Amino acid sequence: MANYLHGFIPEEQQRLIDQAGFLAPKIFKKIDFSGCEHLLEIGSGVGAQTQALLSLFPQLKITCVDYSDSQIEKAKENLKGFEDRVTFSVQDAMELNLDQTFDSAYICWVLEHIAEPRIVLEKVHRHLKPGAKVFLTEVFNSTHYTFPALPFAQKYYRAYNDFQTQIGGHPEIGASLGNLLQQSGFTQISHWLGGFHLDQTHPEELKAMISFWVKLMKSGAEHLIQAGLVTEEEVRKMEEEYHMLPENENAVFFIQFVQAFASV
Predict the structure, then answer these.
(1) Nearest 10 degrees: Cα torsion 39, 65, 4, 2
(2) Residue 15's pLDDT band (cuts 50, 70, 90)
């Protein structure tokens, strides 16, 4: 896995939990694991997505895989009460090695951080039963747009995506999910766009999105400053510009992500 852009501090772990709740109505709109019994979740992190899956699909048992001990320990705390339905494995997904097979798999906001995402998908494929369902959700960061343009926010966002690329990540990987799934041996592949198109017709949703988005952007600030790509003052101005956006009567915030379904 590439050097994780967001880090593993407690504040970031809480942000992941908050993010899962905020994005759940968008992410799970088309995801359907009905009929599945044992799901493999790659990059389960602090268990935020796991908890949503357990609640939506009460028949599921889930094996959570993450390469970070601290994330798994936090996940165990967050998933207390689900011990009979969740097991954990600390390992690098690029070297995935489990002693069982699964009838479903789920990967969300993970492949963007992995140096060789195709290898991960190939490993997952080998651990799935014939007919297994797979759902992926990933970023397509170049789709982000605001009106009016925000100069400091744009500069920061370029640095954010450039840094992720430099450390081996893939900020546009959503656009390639279909190809990656096909190249990894999956069939029945389909994909669709999700995301946000917000303006003053829904001002409260716009403000909520800005609040969420600024926290996401700032989660990478420390690494960007250390890399010399932005200054603390530029981070402050980025945050200020975004927070001012909802005050503009013509404000627009737009971002898309990509989801994909496949089977074995």
Answers:
(1) -100
(2) low
pTM of the model: 0.91
Which tens digits make up the pLDDT trace of 87-121?
Answer: 999 999 999 999 999 999 999 999 999 999 999 99
d(CA 140, CA 193): 10
What's the rounded Cα separation, in Å, for the pair 229 and 234? 10
Roughly what angle, to the nearest 10 degrees, separates helices 151-166 and 203-218? 50
pLDDT given at position 11: 57
Q: Which amino acid is located at 106 in the chain?
A: Y
Q: Look at phi and psi of residue 181 and say left if phi exceeds 0, alpha if psi is from -120 to 50, else beta.
A: alpha
For residues 12 and 78, is the Cβ–Cβ distance under 8 A? no
In sequence order, what DSSP letters do the residues of the chain get, joined into one string? Answer: -PPPTT--SHHHHHHHHHHHHHHHHHHTTS---TT--EEEEET-TTSHHHHHHHHH-TT-EEEEEES-HHHHHHHHHHTTT-TTTEEEEE--GGG---SS-EEEEEEES-GGG-S-HHHHHHHHHHTEEEEEEEEEEEE-GGG-EEES--HHHHHHHHHHHHHHHHTT--TTGGGGHHHHHHHTT-EEEEEEEEEEEEETTSHHHHHHHHHHHHHHHHTTHHHHHHTTSS-HHHHHHHHHHHHHGGGSTT-EEEEEEEEEEEE-
* Joined tokens for residue 26: 């968008």
Reported confidence tier of residue 2, pLDDT bands at 50, 70, 90: very low
pLDDT of residue 185: 97
Q: Of 91, 41, 100, nearest to 68 (Cα)?
A: 91
The C-alpha atoms of residue 211 and residue 192 are separated, in whole angstroms, by: 26
Q: What is the pLDDT of residue 13?
A: 57
Six token digits for residue 232: 């603390």
